[in-house]
Specification:
This protein is mainly alpha-helical. Helix content is about 75%, strand content about 5%. It contains seven helices and two strands; from the N terminus they run ααααββααα. The model has no long low-confidence stretch (mean pLDDT about 85).
Amino acid sequence: MRAIAALYLNAQSAAARADAAQSRVTDSSALYKLAKDKHDAGTATGVDVLRAQVQLANDRQALLIAENQTKQALLELERNLGMSPGTPLELAEPLNYRPLNQPEIEALAPAALLARADYLSLASQREGLVEQQRASRARFYPKLSINGNIGEIGRSIGSVQTTGLVQGQIDFTLFDRDRNGEAQELASRVKRIDDQIADLRRGIEEDLRASLLNLDSTNEQVAVAREGQELAQRELEMAQDRFQQGTANNVEVITAQDELARAEENYILAVSSHVDAKFALARAMGDTEKNILEFMGNP
């Protein structure tokens, strides 16, 4: 389940990059038109036009790459879903940020022990070994058996006499080295399982704590990346206004476009990391499919 979710997240990230690349092409096209109009009006140089044209060409190239990566991501997702290659496939929703109320580790750990298949498997193995120990010890208990029979004996019907026999027997074991060896082997296996269970308990708690740390960190990363994206957008708008008013050339605009592209990529990476942290927490908690659907906001 997590592998499919990771492929879906990869497709969402690729689609978000393609959308961002398309937005940059739109901005670059507007900038190129503005530079050309200002050049025709004699208020911009040919270098401004050439610079805007180069930026537009670069953004178009980046868009082609992003679109191809999106198609490749969808193709890989189709294959892992068992769909025929080339089957039309649309993502249910774009990549977006949904904050998650971070649960407390004290509540997660006991629930995870009841849901994790690896822990339940070890617990089941231990229960089976304990039953074997009980059966092994039961062989040393005394065994009481009672047998009896009843019948009729005689030469004729009139002389028939009832006869019977009742026997009681008690068996108990004094020495049985095979049983002692079996008991020691079972005790050793139980101890080994107990050690594995204790280690897995610590591992589950470590997984949960690491997932919560990642979730908290990615929450902060998204907030910082969103702020950086907003600042970069404002910088681009201000640079465009300065160029349009003729108080600067379009070098500032090109630089601001690059800064915005970097900020958009940082935001995509931050949101992707946050979603992946949700996947990791869902897996650490057990019942991965149910938890992933709940964390992603699906009933």
